[in-house]
User: What shape does this take?
Amino acid sequence: MTDKKENILNAALELFAKEGYSGTSTSKIAKKAGVSEGLIFRHFKNKQGLLDAILQETEAKIKSILMDIIFETDSKKVLRKLIELPFKVKESEFDFWKLQFILKWQPEYDNPDKMKPLIDKLEQVFQDLGYNNPRLEALLLNQLVDSISSEILKGHKALQLEIRDFLLDKYGV
Assistant: This one.
C-alpha cells in the first residue's frame, strides 16, 4: 500500500471515529491526509469505498484476535484472555475500535453473527467448567467485556481495572 493511500485510510478512520461517517466529508479527509480529493476517488471511488476498505481491515483484525481465544484449549486461559483483552488495546488503536462501536448502531453494519464463534467457545468453556447455564454465562461475559471495552475507549480505565480484577477472581482465573 502506498504512503498516500495509507494516509487517506488513517485520516478517514480518525475522522469517522470522531465525527461519524455521515459527518465526515471526503474533502475533510483529503485535507487531513494531505492529498487531493481526486486521489481519494481514484483509490476508493467514493466515501463508502473508504469505509469498506476500513471494514475489510476490521474483519481481519477481529478474526485474528478472536482466533487466539477460540483456539485456546485451556478453559481458564480462554476466560483470562477474554477478560484481559480490552486492556491490551493500544491507545494508538482507539480510533479503530471507536469506529467499530459507532458502526454497531448502524443497522447496515450490525452483524450479530460476528461474535458467534466466540460465544460458542465461551459456552463450551462454561459447560466444561460445570456452570449451570453455560449459554447465558457466555452471553453475559461477552456483554461485560464489550461494556468494559467501551468504557476504556471513553477514557474510564481505572474503574474497569477493578472490574477486570473482580471478573478474574469470580471465574478463578
